[in-house]
């Protein structure tokens, strides 16, 4: 599966209230074969953990600004 995300703003993602885990801005998960994601012209800021988390997929970033993340 392929997806392109363009021109999106992601701000102030929070961890789970129950356990304080997670809080990533954008999460990409590859399941059942090859997956690719293109993130273009995004602003990802103030994520509680990672700005972008990738698990088993190919991720391409262009003109994307990630700032204020813990990781």
| Estimated share of beta-strand residues | over 45%
Task: Please mark out the parts with pLDDT under 50 across 5 or more consecutive residues, or reply none.
Answer: none
**How much helical structure, as a percent, in the residues?**
under 10%
Which structural class best describes the helix and strand composition? mainly beta
- The tally of beta strands, per DSSP, is 8
Q: What is the general shape?
A: flat
Largest sheet: 3 strands, parallel
The total of helices stands at 0
Give, in order, the helices and strands. Answer: EEEEEEEE
- What gap, in angstroms, lies between the N and C termini? 27 Å
- Overall mean pLDDT stands at 93
Rg (CA only):
12 Å
Strand sequence of the main sheet, in spatial order?
1-4-7
Written description of the protein model:
By secondary structure, this protein is mainly β. The protein contains no helices and 8 strands. The chain has a 3-stranded parallel β-sheet with strand order 1-4-7, with no helix packed on it. Strands 2-5-8 form a 3-stranded parallel β-sheet, with no helix packed on it. A two-stranded parallel ribbon has the order 3-6. The relative contact order is 0.31. The model has no long low-confidence stretch (mean pLDDT 93).
Per-chain topology:
Elements: E1 2-6, E2 9-11, E3 26-29, E4 36-40, E5 43-45, E6 52-55, E7 58-62, E8 65-67
Parallel strand pairs: 1-4, 2-5, 3-6, 4-7, 5-8
């Amino acid at each position: 599966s392929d997806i392109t995300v363009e021109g999106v703003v992601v701000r102030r993602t929070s961890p789970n209230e129950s356990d304080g885990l997670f809080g990533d801005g954008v999460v990409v998960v590859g399941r059942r074969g090859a997956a690719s994601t293109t993130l273009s012209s995004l602003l990802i800021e103030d994520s509680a953990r990672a700005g972008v988390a990738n698990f088993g997929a190919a991720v391409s970033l262009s003109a994307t600004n990630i700032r204020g993340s813990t990781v």
